[in-house]
Amino acid sequence: MSTDYQKAREALGIRLRELRLSAPGSRLTGTELADRCGWHKSKVSKLENGRTTPTPDCLRRWAEATGQPEAYDELLGRLRGFESHIRSWRRQLASGHKAVQDTHLRAHADASVFRGWESSMIFGILQTPDYAQSIFTRYAELQRSPRDTEQAVRSRMKRQEALYDSSKRFHLILWEAALHAQICPPSVLAAQLDRLMGVIGLTTVELGIIPLSAALMIPPATAFWIYDDRQVIVENWHAELWIDDEASVDTYLRTWRTLRESAVYGVDAHRLISAARRALH
Q1: How would DSSP label each residue in the chain?
Q2: Per-residue pLDDT reduced to its tens digit, 170-181
Q3: Residue that wins the pLDDT comparison between 91 and 267
């Protein structure tokens, strides 16, 4: 967990303690507050010491139990402030994958220049419906989230309309390993590679592929997107990171440009995709 995120969570915990100690009438003990909220008393301690992240419902109960319901909006604002940067999959996927896809659909609508790096699978915006279905199914199993695969696929396909918007540009880099990753049945991967070869001809897309044999300036690590050179989205196993501070965005831009030095384009990229397609047989 990032230091900034933890500091923000601890600061929220301090504010929660202040509300408990300033409850109208008399200060509440942790046990008394827990009883009013219907919690185990250890939960109050964990929240106040920043060891766990409250939900909006937790904050509402806290404000009401301390006799200060008007504080709820302030508390929620604090929570939204630091959660906007680190969005746990547990929370995001509580209702399934479609909501996450819709969030990215809105973010795509507001941007015009995209830079992406992916090392393990085909970019979502270039996926076929069957390939996307395999990805969502696997992640739903991993995250133990609700199955709304069909709705999530439709939202992802909707996002692909941006590929045909002349006002947008996609500068994408794949590691060759992603062309061979059989996260789906071979027939589905074959169709996906066919789709990828067709993408190379789009005027809005610059698709580079880093060969497995290429010399690398840096390790081909975590995948990320950069929107308009001002916001970065990074996916980890536990959360999505939405990064917008200038120094961090600049780091990801340098990373993307360094990776690009090892990529091949056009005919050479097409040749790598064709080789992966033939290898399936």
Answers
A1: --HHHHHHHHHHHHHHHHHHHT-SSSPPPHHHHHHHHT--HHHHHHHHTTSSPPPHHHHHHHHHHTT-GGGHHHHHHHHHHHHTTEEEHHHHGGG-SHHHHHHHHHHHHT-SEEEEEESSS--GGG--HHHHHHHHHHHHHHHT----HHHHHHHHHHHGGGGG-TT-EEEEEEETHHHH--SS-HHHHHHHHHHHHHHTT-TTEEEEEE-TTS--SS-----EEEETTTEEEEE-SSEEEEE--HHHHHHHHHHHHHHHTT-B-HHHHHHHHHHHHHHT-
A2: 999 999 999 999
A3: 267
Model pLDDT for residues 236-268, shown as the tens digit of each residue: 898 888 888 788 899 999 999 999 999 999 999
Domains (range + CATH), the chain: 3-84 (1.10.260.40), 95-279 (3.30.870.10)
Report pLDDT for 83: 62
Q: What does the pLDDT look like over 55-80, one tens digit per residue?
A: 889 999 999 999 999 999 999 888 87
Amino acid at 66: T
Distance of CA 226 to the CA centre of its chain: 12
Angle at 242 between CA 238 and CA 244, to 5 degrees: 150
